[in-house]
Design goal:
globular, 19 strands, 15% strand, 36% helix, alpha+beta, binds 6-diazenyl-5-OXO-L-norleucine, 579 residues
């Protein structure tokens, strides 16, 4: 037998170790091994593409690719949506989440509508004045930072409820997220900046350092590995609901609560249930729009605003002209006044939905509209009707025509900045979406009253507006966006851009936006909003402010020849995938 020289032996050992590591990694990465085109260390953003079969659009290229792969593996739009949201929880930690909540809206190709509300709920220990001091003033930061700001997370329960409509095993849908967490993925410049900006907050508000705070300064191209999150996701993979709401994950959450005055207890977690909500539906110029019901304000707001402008020739007025912005801002003012007064969790407050979304109510609300003049929020109070920047949206349309729209959030970017030690995920600060004191604006400047006051078990009012549209009874659009209170207005403007201004979905999504929310009585404009229109608005009597960028809208539209036209907002790393 030939004697091996030490150097040869050394080389052979190196090769052997390499082979073992590689095969071990491959065995541990069944999803990525089977889908070699998805490379977590090298991927591209695709902003717009049309697909013959199924399409996904979301805030991150890897998450969108995962969704598309699930459809190619025999799954439907629900499989794709679940796998995309779970992947976002790893590759888009600022908003993709398992420690937050959201809304899933779907229309099956047979016309069946499904609305799953997996919004966070106030814990049993919550009370109306929990964020106020003795004299009754809001305690700075208590509803926004640290575990005290968290509602009971709903995302895992929501995804498991959604799974009833899917075709593939849940264990398969969560697998890509596990692999991204365990073996890492390369972060973008935007993510590096976000993680660096909140480094001190993560350290201050969490009981222990985390995967996000291991490095001094993150830069584009670094690999983020999240072993604790991978372990949490594996517990969910093995045990389903109990992998999150009971056992070690629940215990880690409750322990983190104790570090910064949090309220969520083991019983709260165990008792959390998603709720089915009947979607809001209305017609707009031959289109049928389907959106989310309370505890989202979004569906009602877009129903009100679109019906308010239906009698006007918006197409003729043109995109972002003085006439169209004047009209649309006045519809926004009126609808948002109603949000503050009438909307909250329908299980705790009687929301007059039927009246609010009726066409006659919309017309009555516009009866004092005067063309060419700024209205006044002092004079526009809520109508007489009887009977809440980081969130993320994903849309899927599959080969059959099933449409899913999911908007999900931690509320603020990276939520309450608290990473659950041992479990590796961020917690939400959704409690700030409640009205913590009547007349005191929340993080988004939104006011609220009794309808949205805090009660144990109650869900805080949301602006998230996952929306679907059919045209002549056929699936047509799935759309949505993040952006706090600007969300309903963004969706409203996006749909008007498509329906009235005949824009492509990509043009509609990228177009510059404006926002009015009743109070404060100002028109907020994106930084690239045309100067001459801003001057014209001021001359009409409007107060205006320029305000960076609003949201990251993602959508898919089915063209007349059946193509899935998918678009991701220019404003983020949003990316489309399909086949
Ligand atoms: O549910 C809501 O309305 C808010 N928590 C959404 C927050 C949000 O969109 C922040 N995004 N930029």
């Amino acid at each position: 037998m030939k004697k091996m020289t030490p150097s040869l032996t050394f080389l052979r050992t190196i090769v052997l170790v390499f082979v073992l590591v590689l095969t071990g990694k491959l065995m541990a990465q069944p999803f990525l091994k089977a889908h070699p085109h998805i490379n977590p260390y090298q991927y591209e953003i695709v902003k717009e593409k049309s697909f013959d079969n199924g399409a996904v659009t979301s805030a991150h290229p890897l998450a969108s690719m995962v969704g598309a792969a699930m459809m190619q593996d025999g799954g439907n739009a629900f499989d794709a949506a679940i796998a995309t949201q779970l992947s976002l929880a790893v590759v888009f930690p600022g908003a993709g989440n398992i420690g937050g909540g959201g809304f899933m809206l779907a229309r099956k190709v047979n016309g069946e509508l499904i609305g799953i509300d997996y919004r966070e709920a106030a814990p049993a220990k919550a009370s109306r004045d929990m964020y106020l001091d003795e004299p009754g003033n809001p305690i700075e930061g208590k509803s926004t930072r640290g575990a005290s700001a968290s509602g009971i997370p709903g995302s895992i329960a929501g995804m498991i409820s959604t799974h009833a409509y899917a075709k593939l095993a849940f264990a398969k849908l969560i697998e890509p997220a596990i692999e991204f967490a365990e073996f890492g993925y390369v972060i973008s410049e935007r993510e590096a900046k976000g993680l660096n900006a909140d480094r001190e907050n993560f350290l201050k508000f969490s009981s222990a350092p985390s995967a996000f705070t291991k490095k001094e300064v993150w830069k584009a191209g670094d690999t983020l590995i999240q072993p604790e999150l991978a372990a949490t996701l594996k517990r969910i993979q093995a045990k389903g609901l109990a992998g999150f709401y009971e056992g070690p994950t629940a215990e880690y959450i409750v322990k983190e609560m104790q570090h910064s005055g949090g309220y969520v207890g083991l019983e709260d977690l165990k008792n959390y249930k998603p709720k089915f909500r009947k979607p809001i539906e209305f017609d707009y110029r031959d289109h049928h729009v389907i959106s989310f019901a309370p505890p989202s304000s979004g569906g009602i707001l877009i129903a009100q605003m679109m019906q308010m402008i239906a009698p006007f020739n918006v197409e003729k007025m043109g995109l972002n002209t003085l006439a169209s912005v004047n009209l649309m801002v006045e519809s926004q003012r009126r609808a948002y006044a109603d949000r503050a007064e009438h909307m909250g969790d329908p299980d705790y407050w009687k929301v007059p939905t039927k009246t609010l979304i009726s066409n006659s109510y919309a017309q009555a609300r516009m009866s004092d509209y005067k063309e060419g003049v700024a209205g006044s929020s002092k004079l526009t109070t809520a109508g007489q009707a009887h009977e809440s920047e980081q969130t993320t949206h994903l849309s899927v349309i599959d080969k059959e025509g099933n449409m899913v729209a999911i908007t999900t959030t931690l509320n603020d970017t990276y939520g309450n900045k608290t990473i659950v030690a041992g479990a590796g995920f961020l917690l939400n600060n959704e409690m700030d979406d409640f009205s913590i004191k009547p007349g005191v604006p929340n993080m988004y400047g939104a006011l609220g009253g009794e309808a949205n006051s805090i009660q144990p078990g109650k869900r805080m009012l949301s602006s998230m507006t996952p929306t679907l549209v059919t045209l002549k009874g056929k699936p047509y659009i799935s759309i949505g966006t993040p952006g706090g209170t600007t969300i309903p207005n963004q969706v409203y403007e996006g749909l008007v851009n498509i329906i009235d201004h005949k824009m492509t979905i990509k043009q509609a999504i990228d177009a510059t936006r404006f926002h009015h929310q009743w109070i404060p009585d100002v028109v907020a404009l994106e930084s690239d909003f045309p100067e001459d229109i801003e001057t014209g608005l001021k001359n009409m009597g409007y107060k205006t402010i320029k305000r960076g960028k609003f949201g990251r809208m993602d959508g898919i539209l089915i063209s007349s020849d059946g193509k899935r036209m998918a678009a991701g907002d220019k404003r983020g790393d949003d990316s489309v995938a399909g086949y």
